[in-house]
Structures are given as C-alpha cells and as structure tokens.
Amino acid sequence: SLKLVMSFPNYGQALFKPMKQERHEETNVNLYYFSDFERHNAEIAAFHLDRILGFRRVPPVVGRLVNVIKEIKDITTDHKLVTTFFMSPVGNACFYGQCSYYCSTEHAICGRPLKIEGSMAAMLPDQSLAPRRSWRSPWRRSYSRSKLAQWATDSNYCDSIKKTPPYDRGTRLVDLIDMSILDFLMSNMDRHHYETFEKFGNDTFLIHLDNGRAFGRHSKDEPSILAPLVQCCRVRRSTLLRLRLLSLQSYRMSDVMRASLSQDPLTVVAPLLTEQHLSALDRRLETVIQTIQDCLQQHQHHSDVIYDDIADLRQNLS
Ligand SMILES: Nc1ncnc2c1ncn2[C@@H]1O[C@H](COP(=O)(O)OP(=O)(O)OP(=O)(O)O)[C@@H](O)[C@H]1O
Ligand SMILES: [Mn+2]
C-alpha cells in the first residue's frame, strides 16, 4: 500500500507510511488478515515492543506530523506523485500516490487540513551496499480464504522444520520463535516473510520489517500466531527471562510500553496505543509464559525446551 521514501539534507532516508486507520478502531471481524488496513501507530509500537523484548530487530520507527503540501507536494522529485494531489470538498489537502491497489481519489490520504500523521522508519542501507535476503516463514498463513497451511493441520510439523536448513542448526529456529512471540503479543498475523543481511550468511539475526498489520484487535487473541512456540517447544533463555521480568508488577509490559511510547512525538496528538491494547499485552504475555511452562512440564530435560544463549553471561557475572 501507499508509502513514500523521504530524503533528508544530510542524505538520511526514511520510509514514510501515512495514517490510514484511527487508533481506536478495531479491525472489522469480517476482514481477512491479508486485507486488513495497515496502521502507522502499529509500525511505531512494534519498534518499541521489539526493543523492550530485547530483540532490537525492528529498525527505528518514529511518528511525525507531515505537511502534505510543504513537505511532500512542493518538494517531491516524483512528477507522477505531484499529479495525484487535490483539495477535498471540505478543504483538506489530499493525495493518492502511485501503487498497485487502492490508489484513487476514493482511497486518498488527507491532511486535517494540511498535516497528516505517519510513521517514519529509518531506511536500512541500500540493497546495493548491503544486500538482504527475504525468507518465506515456514509458519506463513495460506493467504487464501479456503486453504489451510500445512502447519495448521500437521502436529508434527516442527519435527520436519527442525531437520530443514537453515532451521537445523544455530539460532534460526529460536529467532523465528522470538518473532512469533513478538507477533502474538501484538497480534500480527501478516508475517509471511522475514529478512536477513546476506553478508552474514545463515548465522545472523532476523530483521522484523512490515509491522503495520499488528495491533488491529485488543479484545481477542489469536493463538495460532504462537504455533512455532507451541509446536517446537523451544525458546531462548534470554527471551524467557525478559518475559518473566515484564510480568512483574514493578516492570509490567503495559507500563513499560506506555512509558516508552510516551516519548514519541505523536503522543501529543493521542497516545500511540489505547489502554485496551496495552492491557491486551499483559494478558497475552501471561499466555506466552504459560505456554513455556506447559512445554517445560511436557519435557524431561529443561534443556529440551530452553536454548541457553546466555551461559557465558553467567560465568562473566560470577
Ligand atoms: N526500514 C526499511 N528500510 C529499507 N527497506 C525497507 C524498510 N522497511 C521496509 N522495507 C522494504 O520495503 C518493502 C515494503 O515494505 P513493507 O512491507 O513494510 O510495506 P507494505 O506497504 O506492507 O508493502 P507490501 O504491500 O509490499 O507488503 C519491503 O520489501 C521491505 O524490504
Ligand atoms: Mn506488507
């Protein structure tokens, strides 16, 4: 959907996604996840949540109020984009841009009257300098109204994934499970792919881009997003410790998120997540911790479930 690359005088660049849905709106229950709107506040909140979880795999995202005329129309070098600006009947500055779907006056982005809210994501280095690889998630949804993906019907699915490169060694599987925990907490069903930097080969971190379909619903949880954790029963020790910390009264996930998000410039317009979304985080965190507890009960050895990625840390401390 519609997004703009913004270039700054210091050669920095950001990916701008304008606001399309009001913060208090819940996703219509009759919409499939793949036709849900994208939310600028979800891009921002996902960055904060990912950082609070200790992953740091979402590039920095910040909210901005942008003047549609002065900061886009008057200075863009994209001549086709210029032709899509118009004044709406009530005098708001609008544009619809160039894209494959929903680029028409009916689906325009409009200021109030001139400024629009949006998310600005720091651009990763250009692909020509730092090529990335896009990986299809093994737990990808079918993106069809009638078909189910294999993972949704095969309870031994993880056994085969565990034997399939690159999930058969290193940290790739636990990284993917970290990502599913992030996605369950923010209820993002749209994680069809993830990216890595090619240069680092298979021994590298995942990049969590495209979080715009998160935080669509606070009143309901989507257990299937946790399938990688439930089916594989494996998790990083550092992740489990962080989740337990964020479940303590004095360090509650919702409180930490509220404090973190309050630093975003768009907070002056309205809090980036409603209180209902914040309390959904605490509720979902309990589910994740309980799922790991259940895994520990089902397995004989602690190490069957817990991937100790911080064994060295303990030595350093003593
Ligand atoms: N911070 C970033 N820096 C560089 N490239 C990015 C960044 N965020 C996203 N991209 C790239 O831009 C493309 C589109 O981004 P994204 O998926 O977030 O937008 P979208 O509107 O959801 O697009 P789509 O409909 O194609 O999924 C992705 O292929 C991704 O590789
Ligand atoms: Mn997308």
Search tags:
single chain; 318 residues; alpha+beta; 2 domains; 11 strands; 32% helix; binds adenosine-5'-triphosphate; binds manganese (II) ion
Description:
Belongs to the FAM20 family. One of its GO terms (molecular function) is metal ion binding. Residues 85-303 form the FAM20 C-terminal domain. This is Family with sequence similarity 20 member C, like. This protein has eleven helices and eleven strands. By secondary structure, it is of the alpha+beta class. The chain has two domains: 4-33 and 63-122, no CATH class; 127-317. A hairpin with a 5-residue loop joins β4 and β5. α1 (40-52) crosses α8, α5 (172-186) runs antiparallel to α9 (275-298) and α8 (253-261) packs across α9 (275-298). The chain binds adenosine-5'-triphosphate (ATP) and manganese (II) ion. The site of adenosine-5'-triphosphate (ATP) has 12 residues, from β7. Adenosine-5'-triphosphate is lined by residues 1, 3, 15, 38, 59, 121-124, 209-210, 212.
